[in-house]
Amino acid sequence: MSEPPPKLLRFSSQKYLAHRLVLSTLTGRPIQVSHIRPSSPTNPGLAPHEISLLRLLEAITNGSHIEISYTGTTLVYKPGLITGSAPGSGASGAVIRHELPVACTRGVSYFLTPLCLLAPFSKAPINVLFTGPGVITSATQAGDMSADSVRTAILPLYAHFGISDNIELRILQRSNAGPGGKGGGGEVQLVFGHQVRLPKTIHILNPGKVKKIRGVAYCTGISASNNARMIEEARGVLNPMIGDTYIFSDVSSAPYLPSTDKSNPHARRRTGVGFGLSLVAESSTGSLYSADVASPPSGGVSAEEIGRQCAHQLLENISQGGSVPLAAAPTMLILMAMGSEDVGRLQMGRDVIGSEPMIELARNLRAFGASGWGIREAKHGPEGDVIVSVVGRGVGNVGRKVT
């Protein structure tokens, strides 16, 4: 007799939808999410970026089933097998081309982070090209980090779990957020070619001392002097504390998109104009802390202010303690929970583990069958740090042959 289908897990609200979709895909548990913006008078239901994420999951999996109610306020997602960019599974020339809609208000990191979490458990390597009028490579007002920070502060974390080969993030065209924070015009390609049966168990118990700071100052469609002003202001804050500070400067032209003017269909409009700064601090034990600030779409903020804000944000993230900042903590904890059936340990700051996203992540992991976290005081490191112990669920990569 065939096994009965997994029980449908029920959630409410659109908050942390990306985490729930990732956990559903990894564990094979179908979910129903209801009350998605039911009280919004103008835009009830799923937002454009959430629908685009669902389409991305459908493209990299085989057998996924998605049902959306007429009003868009209820979603049923039944995951399939993660096939990646395997031939015949939606990839053209081993590359999945994913277009983001012009109404997208989230940065491309909103899509990259879940995709990176699924990639190690894929049957084949993942190669996705993000394109279209909605790709924002900079940090956004919604709290998304820039594509630079994903490349320098998130992808290196996978090496702790034995996942380090053939991983690359290419920023082919930069773009800040367009008018009203909607759309962009950038182009980003993620190549994730290291698939494993099970992530390694980690024990990271020493945050270490910050030894160097690296960063990228970028401007799109404006004068390169803005980069120099951001770098000078940021170094003025950071140099008295860390001498080894180096910030690269990247200047690019603004992307052009087809105009919405119906009287002139061949016209093109310039979008994604702006500037920003991404900083990453590395400790003596390999811990990474990141900060991101970009100019708002409405303007009115000087380059000096952006540089100062980013430097202060980086120092605040370092002061929270622990081996991982809040932006990287979900990646570490999800991989620990999906790893081999052993106890992994991670030192974290009290403010980080006690934040709303972490508490909600613990609840979501518990709902999908993972074990609870053990928390105790840390003996070493900054005062107030805690050791978080996570027992792996042993999910593994069902699409990968045992060798």
Provide structural commentary:
The protein contains 9 helices and 20 strands. The protein is an alpha+beta fold. The strands form 6 sheets. The protein has a 4-stranded mixed sheet with strand order 1-2-5-4, covered by helices on one side. A 4-stranded mixed sheet has the order 7-8-10-9, covered by helices on one side. Helix 3 links the parallel strand 7 (96-99) and strand 8 (126-131). Helix 1 (17-27) packs parallel to helix 2 (48-60). The protein is globular.
| SS-derived structural category | alpha+beta
Rg, nearest Å: 21 Å
**Biggest pleated-sheet summary:** 4 strands, mixed
Low-confidence stretches: none
Average of the residue pLDDT scores: 90
| Overall outline | globular
Strand order of the largest sheet: 1-2-5-4
Question: Roughly what fraction of the amino acids lie in strands?
Answer: 25-35%
Tally of contiguous helical segments? 9
State the helical fraction: 10-25%
Give the number of DSSP strands.
20
Summarize the helix and strand pattern as letters: EHEHEEEEEHEHEEEEHEEEEEHHEHHEE
What gap, in angstroms, lies between the N and C termini?
Answer: 30 Å
